[in-house]
Design brief:
By secondary structure, the protein is α/β, with parallel strands linked by helices. The protein has three domains: 127 residues, 3-Layer(aba) Sandwich (Rossmann fold); 84 residues, 3-Layer(aba) Sandwich (Rossmann fold); 78 residues, Rossmann fold (3-Layer(aba) Sandwich), CATH 3.40.50.10800. It is built from 16 helices and twelve strands. The strands form three sheets. A four-stranded parallel beta sheet has the order 2-1-3-4, with helices on both faces. Helix 6 links the parallel strand 3 and strand 4. Helix 6 crosses helix 16. The termini are far apart. Bound molecules: 1,3-dihydroxyacetonephosphate (13P) and iron/sulfur cluster. 1,3-dihydroxyacetonephosphate binds next to helix 5.
C-alpha cells in the first residue's frame, strides 16, 4: 500500500496532464505501462515521436516530441538517440527512416496504415508523369517511400500552399489527396492535377450539412477544419490548416467555443492549452492512428520491434524529395 501511494505521488504530475480524460481507475492500469515506457526509453536511448492524433496518455505521458507530420519529419532528422519510436502511422515511420537512415526506426504496429498512402504506388506515379509530362510532381508525405522516390518535392498540409507557389508554374501534379489538391487549387489559383482514388477515409466523411448544422446551432462557434476535408466543408470553416496549424489557431485565439473538424484526440490533447475554450464534439476517429497503444509501445521498446527497413536506393531517391521540402519549409 505504501509502495502504491509512493508511485501515485511520483507520477502525479503526469496524471495532472490527463486527469480530465481518464479516471483514477484508468490511471491505475496505465501508470505502470507509462513508467515502464519512460524507463525503457532511458535504458535504450530511445525517443518517441508522437503525432497530434495520438491518445492523450501517449501524447502527454510518454512522448518526447509531438507535432504534425512536418514537425515530426524535421525532428526525425535532428534526433540524436539510437532508436526512434514512431507513435503514428507507417508512412511517418518511413519518413523518419528516410531522414535518419542510420537510426533504428520502430513502429509499435506496422498495420497502422493510411488510406492515402495505400491509394497509390510508385508505378502509378510513373504513369501519371507519362500522361502529364513536364509538370512538377508534388507528393503529400502521406505516401509510401517508393512514391516519394518518384517525386520532385514532398509537402505536408502545413506547407503545401507554400511549396506549390514556390515552383512558379501554373500547373502541377499534386497527389494523392484529391481533396487537399482541390483546396490548394482554390487557394492558389494554380491548377492541380491529382489522383482520383486518393482521399482520407476520416476527413472525407465530414459533410457540408454537418457544418451548416453546427453553424446554425451557434453563430459564435469557431469552425476549424483540416484541408483533407472536401472543398465544400473547408469553405464553411473559419480556418483550415494542418493539425499544428489548428492547434496554433486555438492557442493563439483562445476562442470561447470551437469545433475541430478532424480526428477526435486533438481536442483532448490541446484542452489544457486553452482552458477557457469549450470543444464541441464534432470529430471522427482514425482507426490507423488508434492502433498505437501504451501496450504495444512497451512491447516495441522491450523487443525492439517492429523495425522499419527500406531499400537503400529508395531511401536515396526519396530523401531528395523530402529534403527539398524541408529546405522550403
Ligand atoms: P498533419 O500533417 O496535419 O498532422 O496531418 C497528418 C494526417 O495524417 C492528417 O490526417
Ligand atoms: Fe491517413 Fe486520414 Fe488517418 Fe491521417 S486521418 S493517417 S490521412 S487515414
Amino acid at each position: 500500500m505504501a509502495e502504491k501511494l509512493a508511485t501515485q505521488i511520483k507520477s502525479q504530475y503526469l496524471y495532472d496532464k490527463v486527469k480530465d480524460v481518464y479516471s483514477l481507475d484508468d490511471w491505475e492500469y496505465m501508470e505502470p505501462l507509462i513508467a515502464r515506457i519512460n524507463q525503457l526509453k532511458k535504458e535504450k536511448n530511445a525517443v518517441i515521436l508522437a503525432h497530434n492524433y495520438m491518445t492523450p496518455d501517449i501524447y502527454h505521458c510518454v512522448s518526447d516530441i509531438v507535432g504534425d507530420s512536418l514537425a515530426l519529419a524535421i525532428e526525425a532528422k535532428k534526433v540524436e538517440s539510437d532508436i526512434i519510436v514512431m507513435a503514428g502511422v507507417h508512412f511517418m515511420a518511413e519518413t523518419s527512416k528516410i531522414l535518419s537512415p542510420e537510426k533504428k526506426v520502430l513502429i509499435p504496429d506496422d498495420k497502422a496504415g493510411c488510406s492515402l498512402a495505400s491509394s497509390i504506388t510508385g508505378a502509378d506515379v510513373r504513369k501519371l508523369k507519362q500522361l502529364y509530362p513536364g509538370r512538377p510532381v508534388i507528393t503529400y508525405v502521406n505516401t509510401t517511400a517508393d512514391v516519394k522516390a518518384e517525386t520532385d518535392i514532398c509537402c505536408t498540409s502545413g506547407n503545401v500552399e507554400k511549396i506549390v507557389r514556390s515552383l512558379g508554374v501554373d500547373e502541377v501534379i499534386l497527389i494523392p489527396d484529391k481533396y487537399l489538391a482541390g483546396n490548394v487549387e482554390k487557394a492558389t489559383g494554380i491548377r492541380c492535377i491529382t489522383w482520383d482514388d486518393g482521399s482520407c477515409e476520416v476527413h472525407e466523411l465530414f459533410t457540408v450539412d454537418e457544418m451548416k448544422t453546427l453553424r446554425k446551432s451557434d453563430p459564435d462557434l469557431k469552425i476549424i477544419a483540416h484541408p483533407e476535408c472536401p472543398k465544400e466543408v473547408v469553405a464553411e470553416a473559419d480556418f483550415a490548416g494542418s493539425t499544428a496549424g489548428m492547434i496554433n489557431y486555438v492557442v493563439d485565439n483562445q476562442p470561447e467555443k470551437v469545433a475541430l473538424i478532424t480526428e477526435c484526440s486533438m481536442s483532448h490533447n490541446i484542452a489544457k492549452q486553452a482552458p477557457n475554450t469549450k470543444f464541441m464534439g464534432m470529430c471522427r476517429m482514425c482507426p490507423h492512428m488508434k492502433k498505437i497503444t501504451l501496450e504495444n509501445i512497451v512491447k516495441c521498446l522491450e523487443q525492439e520491434t517492429i523495425e522499419v527497413y527500406l531499400d537503400d536506393e529508395i531511401i536515396q531517391k526519396a530523401y531528395g524529395s523530402v529534403q527539398r521540402m524541408l529546405e522550403r519549409s
